Structure formats: C-alpha cells, structure tokens
Amino acid sequence: MQHVENELDQTIEKLSSTNTKFDEKDKAFQLAEGESQALSRKLVLEEAEFERTESTLVTITAELTEKSNLADTINKAIKVLETKNMIDEESKQKNSYPSFPFKFC
Questions:
Q1: Integer CA distances (angstroms), 13 to 17, 25, 76, 81, 89, in order
Q2: Helix/strand/coil (H, E, C) string of 5-64?
Q3: Alpha-carbon Rg of the chain, whole angstroms?
Q4: Is residue 66 classed as helix, strand or coil in its secondary structure?
Q5: Gap between the Cα atoms of 36 and 43, Å rounded
Q6: Structure pTM?
Q7: pLDDT tens-digit profile of 67-93?
C-alpha cells in the first residue's frame, strides 16, 4: 500500500509539474496570438496607407506631367517671341539707317 501511495504522490507531482508547464506554454501562446493579431491589424492599416499613398502618387504624377507640358508650351512660346523680337530688331535696324539724298551711279 505504501508503494501505491508513493506512486500516487509521484504521479500527482508529475501532473502538477505538467499543469504548470502547460499554463506557461498557454500564456506564451496567448501572448504570441495577441502579438499576431496586433501585427495583422497593423498590416491592414499599412496596406490602407499604402493604397492612399499610391493614389496620391498617381494624382501628383499626373499633375506634374500636366505642369511639365505647360512649361514646355511656355518655353516654346518664349522662343517664338524671342525669334520674332530678334526679327523686329533687325528690321528696325535696317529701317533706321539714314538714306542718302543722292544716288550712286
């Protein structure tokens, strides 16, 4: 009978030790699961932020392209005006030379 009681005590100690280990592992699992859920929520938020940023990038790129085209058009107009101005200046210079009252024969 003493032998059975000793085995029972050992089994109870093993059970208690196993329960303690189980509780520790369960706590670690719960902690890891909570961290996993937090990371999942963070990932969803980051994906939404990425989509907003990507949309903003598309919009800004389109605006930048539009502004660049406008700048090109303005630069072309400036070159046309500069050319016209240069032609007008040359014309003025030709017309501003004094004419001689006599003709060369």
A1: 6, 18, 92, 99, 110
A2: HHHHHHHHHHHHHHHHHHHHHHHHHHHHHHHHHHHHHHHHHHHHHHHHHHHHHHHHHHHH
A3: 45
A4: helix
A5: 10
A6: 0.56
A7: 999 999 999 999 999 999 999 998 888
